[in-house]
Amino acid sequence: MKLISLTQKNIQTTVQTSAEAIRRGNVLIVPTDTVYGIIANALDEKAVKKVYLIKERDTAKPLPIFVKHIAMAKKYAAISARQEKFLEENWPGKVTVILARKSAAKIFGTADNTIAMRIPFYHFINSLLDTLGLPLCGTSANVSGLPASTKIDDVIAQFQRSRDLPDIIINAGDLPESKPSTIVDLTKKETAVIRN
Questions:
Q1: Which of 45, 53, 84, 107 has the highest CB neighbour number within 10 Å of its CB?
Q2: pTM, whole model, 2 decimals?
């Protein structure tokens, strides 16, 4: 488990290092606009399985996906004009949206018929998505059953005891107090808030 300190001066080199690691199938813990998150290439089945192992998460529970723009979201989800308007109003930001998954979409960690996605509002992650040009599974960096955190020491402590470890932790220090993103289901006629 490699620790990399993220500073204003090394953002671009850290983005490049992280992008190369993700292309190799590595799993990373990174700062986001909400809490620390755990990310991997959502198109790499082996990497996504590793996320489940590290989090000790039930594989029946889908993972949210980070995308870099609405055009990327449209590759994996069927998005109506009404839904697109909602996305334009709420992305980038702390809102994860559940949409109908395209049946032909080759992406892992999602449900069979639905996909939860968001565009974060955090320079490091947005630069990483831009550099990679591919979707990332992005979920809170905590062992299932334990709380998500904005405190780097809490995050590291949770995973130090794990049998399966993330490959790299990007340490940006403690993040501003926040909670995981709001989850909104847009697959029904009425917009439903699943988690606030």
A1: 107
A2: 0.95
